Amino acid sequence: MTGAILAAEVAEAAARAGGAVLRRYLRDGADLEVGYKDARANLVTAADRESQRAVADIILTAFPGHAVDGEEGPAGNAGATDVWYVDPLDGTTNFTHGVPFFCVSVALRSSARTVAGAVYDPARDEMFVGIRGGGATLNGSPVGVSDVARLDRALVVAQAQTVDPAEIRAYARLVERLMSRAGGVRALGSPALTLCAIAAGRLEAYCEYTMDAWDILAGQLILAEAGGTLTLFDGRPHVTADRADVVASNGYLHQELIDALRGLDRVTPAPAPEGPQ
Questions:
Q1: Which of 86, 90, 233, 276 could join 192 in a cystine, given CB atoms 3.0 to 4.6 angstroms apart?
Q2: CA 179, 194, 148 angle in degrees (round to 5)?
Q3: What is the pTM of this model?
Q4: Residue 69 and residue 85 in contact, taking contact as beta carbons nearer than 8 Å
Protein backbone atom coordinates (compact mmCIF):
# COMPACT_ATOMS: atom_id res chain seq x y z
CA MET A 1 0.00 0.00 0.00
CA THR A 2 2.89 2.38 0.77
CA GLY A 3 4.12 2.11 -2.81
CA ALA A 4 0.64 2.74 -4.17
CA ILE A 5 0.25 5.82 -1.99
CA LEU A 6 3.55 7.23 -3.26
CA ALA A 7 2.53 6.45 -6.83
CA ALA A 8 -0.79 8.23 -6.29
CA GLU A 9 1.02 11.29 -4.97
CA VAL A 10 3.23 11.35 -8.05
CA ALA A 11 0.22 10.81 -10.32
CA GLU A 12 -1.54 13.75 -8.68
CA ALA A 13 1.52 16.01 -9.01
CA ALA A 14 1.98 15.00 -12.64
CA ALA A 15 -1.68 15.58 -13.48
CA ARG A 16 -1.55 19.02 -11.84
CA ALA A 17 1.55 19.89 -13.87
CA GLY A 18 -0.24 18.95 -17.08
CA GLY A 19 -3.31 20.87 -15.98
CA ALA A 20 -1.23 23.99 -15.36
CA VAL A 21 -0.07 23.83 -18.98
CA LEU A 22 -3.66 23.61 -20.22
CA ARG A 23 -4.78 26.52 -18.06
CA ARG A 24 -1.91 28.64 -19.35
CA TYR A 25 -2.91 28.03 -22.95
CA LEU A 26 -6.46 29.04 -22.16
CA ARG A 27 -5.41 32.10 -20.15
CA ASP A 28 -2.83 33.42 -22.60
CA GLY A 29 -4.69 32.59 -25.80
CA ALA A 30 -1.53 30.96 -27.18
CA ASP A 31 -1.57 29.38 -30.64
CA LEU A 32 -2.78 25.79 -30.20
CA GLU A 33 -1.26 24.67 -33.54
CA VAL A 34 -4.20 22.35 -34.12
CA GLY A 35 -3.47 19.25 -36.21
CA TYR A 36 -5.42 16.12 -37.11
CA LYS A 37 -4.61 12.45 -36.65
CA ASP A 38 -7.37 11.55 -39.10
CA ALA A 39 -9.57 13.39 -41.60
CA ARG A 40 -11.52 15.49 -39.09
CA ALA A 41 -12.34 13.86 -35.72
CA ASN A 42 -9.09 13.22 -33.84
CA LEU A 43 -7.33 16.49 -32.98
CA VAL A 44 -3.91 17.11 -31.48
CA THR A 45 -2.55 20.46 -30.30
CA ALA A 46 0.59 22.05 -28.95
CA ALA A 47 -1.12 21.94 -25.55
CA ASP A 48 -1.41 18.12 -25.73
CA ARG A 49 2.29 17.78 -26.44
CA GLU A 50 3.48 20.28 -23.84
CA SER A 51 1.17 18.84 -21.19
CA GLN A 52 2.57 15.37 -21.82
CA ARG A 53 6.13 16.62 -21.45
CA ALA A 54 5.23 18.23 -18.12
CA VAL A 55 3.54 15.04 -16.90
CA ALA A 56 6.41 12.80 -18.01
CA ASP A 57 9.00 15.06 -16.36
CA ILE A 58 7.29 14.68 -12.98
CA ILE A 59 6.94 10.91 -13.33
CA LEU A 60 10.46 10.20 -14.56
CA THR A 61 12.03 12.47 -11.95
CA ALA A 62 10.33 10.40 -9.25
CA PHE A 63 10.75 7.03 -11.01
CA PRO A 64 13.57 7.25 -13.57
CA GLY A 65 13.43 3.52 -14.31
CA HIS A 66 9.75 3.51 -15.28
CA ALA A 67 8.14 3.79 -18.71
CA VAL A 68 5.60 6.36 -19.86
CA ASP A 69 3.10 5.30 -22.52
CA GLY A 70 1.33 8.50 -23.50
CA GLU A 71 -1.17 9.34 -26.19
CA GLU A 72 1.46 11.66 -27.68
CA GLY A 73 4.25 9.09 -27.58
CA PRO A 74 6.46 7.06 -25.20
CA ALA A 75 9.17 8.16 -22.80
CA GLY A 76 11.44 6.63 -20.18
CA ASN A 77 12.60 3.01 -20.02
CA ALA A 78 10.83 1.15 -22.81
CA GLY A 79 11.61 -2.21 -21.20
CA ALA A 80 10.18 -1.38 -17.78
CA THR A 81 7.41 -3.46 -16.21
CA ASP A 82 6.14 -0.37 -14.36
CA VAL A 83 4.29 1.66 -16.99
CA TRP A 84 2.51 5.00 -16.63
CA TYR A 85 -0.40 5.57 -19.01
CA VAL A 86 -0.91 9.25 -19.75
CA ASP A 87 -3.55 11.19 -21.61
CA PRO A 88 -2.24 14.75 -21.35
CA LEU A 89 -5.47 16.28 -22.67
CA ASP A 90 -8.49 14.01 -22.66
CA GLY A 91 -11.16 16.01 -24.45
CA THR A 92 -9.02 17.88 -26.96
CA THR A 93 -11.97 18.82 -29.17
CA ASN A 94 -13.80 20.28 -26.17
CA PHE A 95 -10.65 22.16 -25.18
CA THR A 96 -10.13 23.72 -28.61
CA HIS A 97 -13.76 24.88 -28.68
CA GLY A 98 -13.74 26.32 -25.17
CA VAL A 99 -16.05 23.65 -23.76
CA PRO A 100 -14.98 23.14 -20.12
CA PHE A 101 -15.04 19.33 -20.04
CA PHE A 102 -11.48 18.02 -20.43
CA CYS A 103 -8.79 16.66 -18.13
CA VAL A 104 -5.35 15.15 -17.63
CA SER A 105 -5.33 11.42 -16.87
CA VAL A 106 -2.37 9.55 -15.29
CA ALA A 107 -2.28 5.90 -14.18
CA LEU A 108 0.45 3.48 -13.07
CA ARG A 109 0.30 -0.23 -13.90
CA SER A 110 2.66 -2.49 -11.99
CA SER A 111 2.68 -6.30 -12.10
CA ALA A 112 -0.21 -6.19 -14.60
CA ARG A 113 -2.48 -4.21 -12.25
CA THR A 114 -3.39 -0.54 -12.13
CA VAL A 115 -2.26 0.54 -8.68
CA ALA A 116 -2.77 4.31 -8.70
CA GLY A 117 -4.42 6.93 -10.83
CA ALA A 118 -5.25 10.62 -10.94
CA VAL A 119 -7.61 12.57 -13.18
CA TYR A 120 -7.42 16.34 -12.98
CA ASP A 121 -10.07 18.72 -14.29
CA PRO A 122 -8.30 22.10 -14.51
CA ALA A 123 -11.48 23.97 -15.49
CA ARG A 124 -13.07 23.13 -12.12
CA ASP A 125 -9.87 22.51 -10.16
CA GLU A 126 -11.14 19.02 -9.33
CA MET A 127 -8.61 16.29 -8.61
CA PHE A 128 -9.84 12.69 -8.58
CA VAL A 129 -7.41 10.14 -7.13
CA GLY A 130 -7.69 6.37 -6.79
CA ILE A 131 -5.42 3.99 -4.89
CA ARG A 132 -5.88 0.23 -5.30
CA GLY A 133 -7.41 -0.94 -2.03
CA GLY A 134 -7.29 2.60 -0.63
CA GLY A 135 -10.44 4.24 -1.96
CA ALA A 136 -11.21 7.13 -4.27
CA THR A 137 -11.26 10.83 -3.47
CA LEU A 138 -12.23 14.15 -4.99
CA ASN A 139 -10.07 17.01 -3.71
CA GLY A 140 -9.18 14.82 -0.74
CA SER A 141 -12.72 13.79 0.26
CA PRO A 142 -14.08 10.28 -0.37
CA VAL A 143 -16.46 9.82 -3.29
CA GLY A 144 -19.04 7.16 -4.05
CA VAL A 145 -21.35 6.15 -6.87
CA SER A 146 -25.06 6.94 -7.06
CA ASP A 147 -27.65 4.42 -5.85
CA VAL A 148 -29.74 4.48 -9.04
CA ALA A 149 -30.58 0.84 -9.72
CA ARG A 150 -32.76 1.08 -12.85
CA LEU A 151 -31.52 1.77 -16.35
CA ASP A 152 -34.67 3.72 -17.19
CA ARG A 153 -33.75 6.16 -14.43
CA ALA A 154 -30.09 6.38 -15.38
CA LEU A 155 -28.11 9.06 -17.20
CA VAL A 156 -25.77 7.25 -19.60
CA VAL A 157 -22.88 8.56 -21.69
CA ALA A 158 -22.21 7.01 -25.10
CA GLN A 159 -19.68 8.58 -27.42
CA ALA A 160 -17.39 7.93 -30.37
CA GLN A 161 -14.49 9.65 -32.07
CA THR A 162 -14.08 8.20 -35.53
CA VAL A 163 -14.29 8.89 -39.25
CA ASP A 164 -14.73 5.20 -40.12
CA PRO A 165 -18.20 4.63 -41.64
CA ALA A 166 -18.60 1.17 -40.07
CA GLU A 167 -17.77 2.49 -36.62
CA ILE A 168 -20.13 5.43 -37.11
CA ARG A 169 -22.92 2.96 -37.92
CA ALA A 170 -22.04 0.87 -34.87
CA TYR A 171 -22.21 3.97 -32.68
CA ALA A 172 -25.59 4.92 -34.13
CA ARG A 173 -26.93 1.46 -33.25
CA LEU A 174 -25.50 1.77 -29.74
CA VAL A 175 -27.15 5.15 -29.16
CA GLU A 176 -30.47 3.89 -30.55
CA ARG A 177 -30.41 0.92 -28.18
CA LEU A 178 -29.56 3.07 -25.18
CA MET A 179 -32.14 5.73 -25.97
CA SER A 180 -34.81 3.02 -26.04
CA ARG A 181 -33.84 1.78 -22.56
CA ALA A 182 -32.08 4.49 -20.51
CA GLY A 183 -33.39 7.56 -18.76
CA GLY A 184 -31.10 9.82 -20.77
CA VAL A 185 -28.13 9.58 -23.15
CA ARG A 186 -25.34 12.14 -23.53
CA ALA A 187 -21.99 12.46 -25.34
CA LEU A 188 -19.57 14.49 -23.22
CA GLY A 189 -16.22 14.02 -24.97
CA SER A 190 -13.80 13.00 -22.20
CA PRO A 191 -13.77 9.30 -21.20
CA ALA A 192 -11.56 9.74 -18.14
CA LEU A 193 -13.63 12.59 -16.73
CA THR A 194 -16.85 10.71 -17.53
CA LEU A 195 -15.69 7.73 -15.48
CA CYS A 196 -14.88 10.06 -12.59
CA ALA A 197 -18.34 11.62 -12.87
CA ILE A 198 -19.84 8.15 -12.40
CA ALA A 199 -17.51 7.62 -9.43
CA ALA A 200 -18.80 10.86 -7.90
CA GLY A 201 -22.47 9.95 -8.44
CA ARG A 202 -23.10 12.56 -11.15
CA LEU A 203 -23.77 9.97 -13.89
CA GLU A 204 -24.77 6.31 -13.84
CA ALA A 205 -23.13 4.67 -16.87
CA TYR A 206 -20.87 4.98 -19.90
CA CYS A 207 -20.29 2.97 -23.10
CA GLU A 208 -17.64 3.41 -25.77
CA TYR A 209 -15.86 1.32 -28.38
CA THR A 210 -12.09 0.92 -28.95
CA MET A 211 -10.77 2.70 -25.88
CA ASP A 212 -7.04 2.96 -25.28
CA ALA A 213 -5.38 2.43 -21.92
CA TRP A 214 -4.48 6.10 -21.42
CA ASP A 215 -8.16 7.02 -21.83
CA ILE A 216 -9.61 4.75 -19.18
CA LEU A 217 -7.14 3.14 -16.74
CA ALA A 218 -7.05 5.96 -14.19
CA GLY A 219 -10.80 6.48 -14.38
CA GLN A 220 -11.43 2.74 -14.16
CA LEU A 221 -9.48 2.49 -10.91
CA ILE A 222 -11.14 5.58 -9.44
CA LEU A 223 -14.56 4.19 -10.38
CA ALA A 224 -13.82 0.77 -8.91
CA GLU A 225 -12.58 2.27 -5.66
CA ALA A 226 -15.78 4.39 -5.50
CA GLY A 227 -17.96 1.28 -5.77
CA GLY A 228 -18.59 1.10 -9.51
CA THR A 229 -17.45 -1.25 -12.23
CA LEU A 230 -16.05 -1.30 -15.76
CA THR A 231 -16.21 -4.37 -18.01
CA LEU A 232 -16.18 -5.41 -21.63
CA PHE A 233 -19.51 -5.27 -23.48
CA ASP A 234 -20.22 -8.92 -22.66
CA GLY A 235 -19.66 -8.35 -18.95
CA ARG A 236 -16.21 -9.93 -18.68
CA PRO A 237 -13.71 -7.99 -16.55
CA HIS A 238 -11.33 -5.62 -18.33
CA VAL A 239 -8.02 -6.38 -16.65
CA THR A 240 -5.42 -5.58 -19.33
CA ALA A 241 -4.00 -2.45 -20.92
CA ASP A 242 -5.24 -3.54 -24.34
CA ARG A 243 -7.59 -1.47 -26.46
CA ALA A 244 -11.15 -2.53 -25.66
CA ASP A 245 -14.87 -1.87 -26.00
CA VAL A 246 -15.96 -0.91 -22.48
CA VAL A 247 -19.10 -0.49 -20.41
CA ALA A 248 -18.98 1.24 -17.02
CA SER A 249 -21.62 1.90 -14.40
CA ASN A 250 -22.33 2.54 -10.75
CA GLY A 251 -22.59 -1.24 -10.40
CA TYR A 252 -26.23 -1.37 -9.34
CA LEU A 253 -27.55 -1.41 -12.90
CA HIS A 254 -24.58 -3.01 -14.63
CA GLN A 255 -26.20 -6.33 -15.46
CA GLU A 256 -29.32 -4.62 -16.82
CA LEU A 257 -27.06 -2.44 -19.00
CA ILE A 258 -25.11 -5.45 -20.28
CA ASP A 259 -28.40 -7.22 -21.07
CA ALA A 260 -29.68 -4.14 -22.92
CA LEU A 261 -26.60 -4.07 -25.14
CA ARG A 262 -26.66 -7.77 -25.95
CA GLY A 263 -26.72 -8.63 -29.64
CA LEU A 264 -25.38 -5.36 -31.01
CA ASP A 265 -23.61 -6.00 -34.33
CA ARG A 266 -20.19 -4.57 -33.57
CA VAL A 267 -17.41 -3.89 -36.06
CA THR A 268 -14.08 -5.61 -35.44
CA PRO A 269 -11.99 -3.36 -33.17
CA ALA A 270 -8.90 -1.76 -34.64
CA PRO A 271 -5.57 -3.37 -33.63
CA ALA A 272 -4.04 -2.13 -30.40
CA PRO A 273 -1.11 0.27 -30.85
CA GLU A 274 2.39 -1.05 -30.35
CA GLY A 275 4.21 -0.09 -27.20
CA PRO A 276 4.66 -1.12 -23.57
CA GLN A 277 1.64 -2.83 -22.01
A1: 90
A2: 60
A3: 0.93
A4: yes
